[in-house]
Amino acid sequence: MPEPLKHRLAGAEVDVIADRVQLVYPSFDRSRFVSITSEMEALELKDRIAAVADRLHETLPASYPEAVSILVQAVEGGMEGFAAWPLCTFVERHGVDHPTESLAAMESLTRAWSCEFAVRPFLDQHLNQTMAAVDRWVDSDDADVRRLASEGTRPRLPWGPRVQALSDDPQIGLGVLERLRHDPSEMVRRSVANHLNDIAKDHPDLVVETLGRWAGEGTVDERMISHALRSLVKQGHPGALGVLGFTTDAQVDVVAFEVSPGSVRLGDIIELRAVLKSTADQVQRLVIDFVIHHPTARGSLSTKVFKWTTVELEAGAEQMLTKRRRIETASTRKYTAGIHSIELQVAGAVLATASFDLLDGSP
After folding, report:
1. Cβ–Cβ under 8 Å, residues 268 and 257
2. pLDDT tens, residue by residue, 117-137
3. Which of 52, 118, 264, 334 makes an SS bond possible with 268, Cβ 3.0 to 4.6 Å?
4. What superfamily in CATH does domain 252-358 come from?
5. H/E element holding 271?
6. Which of 117, 362, 346 is closest to 253 using CA atoms?
């Protein structure tokens, strides 16, 4: 079993923070600060981070500008990884009334650990001032700072609180992405793609229009465009398929579509087999997905689209496809015993259905 993520922030990381802070602030009450370690064992990761951040608030000077300056110097003295996360959270939880000092601190702290969560309350309560800082971050020489400009302004940042203004007005974020789409860092371009994928969930046509324009310029990272459109492609959005050069109206017959074995238990592997025959008089570039409808304990269905493959199907040609998938519990999915239907989706259209019977559910 992999080690729980919460153990990445434990006594050793608390000691690193204490060492670095004390170098900058010799009167630091180290013993009181490190005593937080005894309280962390029962806490999950995010609660651990908050607890360490709050203990810093209790043991650093009462003046927030002085306290955050100490943390910036501690990071600049050498700190990275999970030990640096609570310092960002300190700003998030205790610095909102001091936006000038906090936004300046983020530019240093994010080099050690991303401040993408820390910036959210500032976007919510000090939008104009925060976006002015974001505007500066876009021009930074440091890729971590440029990534913060994109990642921190995502409308649906995972684990991050919603910022209503970003959901209501996607142009706020798009202005940032326009300037970062040619960024030399793949890390930054991937953040741009994830940001666009967020926007697409509420404004799909806007994202398709934007990426169509970028693709037409011929100088944008094609992998970034593909990653940005991944959710719309799974939904079979014709505009998204068109931007990527895929066929939007498949002309195929499904000769066969089946799943085996017909009955499985958790941990077993199912195999999908499909045979497609082209009825077109030209080559078709096809996106092939499969959709599983999972029954839930409440009697409803939970639907999940999975990528299968992409094919170039010649005029009149026939092609067989196979796909194997293990049916196992994940952190985001629990299984309920019963019939699970599987749909074959070609260019966004469901063309065939099969099913398997899951004999046992998640414990």
Report:
1. no
2. 999 999 999 999 999 999 999
3. 264
4. Immunoglobulins (2.60.40.10)
5. strand 269-278
6. 346
